[in-house]
Amino acid sequence: MTRIGILLSGRGSNFVAIAEAIQRANNEADATSALRNARISIVISNRADAPGIAAARSRGLPSAVIEARGRTRAEHDAEILTCLQEHQVELICLAGYMRLLSPAFVRAYPQRILNIHPSLLPAFPGLDAQRQALNYGVAITGCTVHFVDEELDHGVIVLQRAVPVLENDEETSLSARILEQEHRAYPEALERVLSGRYEIAGRRYVLRNRDEASTPPELKKCNS
User: Fold this and answer.
1) What number of other Cβ atoms are within 10 A of residue 126's Cβ?
2) Which residues span the domain enclosing 193?
3) pLDDT digits (tens, 9 = 90+) for 131-185
4) What is the pTM of this model?
5) Which residues are catalytic?
6) In this structure, are residues 185 and 161 in contact, taking their beta carbons and an 8 Å threshold?
7) 127 DSSP assignment
8) What's the structural domain count of the chain?
């Protein structure tokens, strides 16, 4: 069983998509789904008013609010790391977490932090990716699930989904269609990572055959 920690700052819709996917995998008794071997151990927010925390509590999941006000990033991250370690978290999913992680935080969970970004990285990193896409005039954008490293929106890409930009699109309409794909992409990417059927070659995430499935090397360390 892989213990997952969720970090969020707002509504947490991607957290809900992950939680529902794990629940479906268990309810349907799908022996082929790696999501059956995962559970959400803690949901953490840096904001007490985040709707995602209320969603976690309504599902009976452990939750914590760790606010950053009055503390350095390093101090704040250290408290979050302590909370994650207390709940024996092995894999972290950022679900709309609107703070940059410190290098020490990333080093504590190497290749074990996932993030989702509303563009086809490396295009349009950072804030307001949908607005950036519209302003640039691209015909296609989308979303990317990637491992987190010490650079902004830079880690190895696990999965991407494309979304066409329509002629009459505004930021709101484009964001809504990208979000629909995010809710599909994040659980699928999480299942890929949990399956162990991959290796990282340079900057490439490489899928292996199903019969080569194993615990991901990074998670195996935590399970030992």
Assistant:
1) 10
2) 2-223
3) 999 999 999 999 999 999 999 999 999 999 999 999 999 999 999 999 999 999 9
4) 0.91
5) 117
6) yes
7) S
8) 1
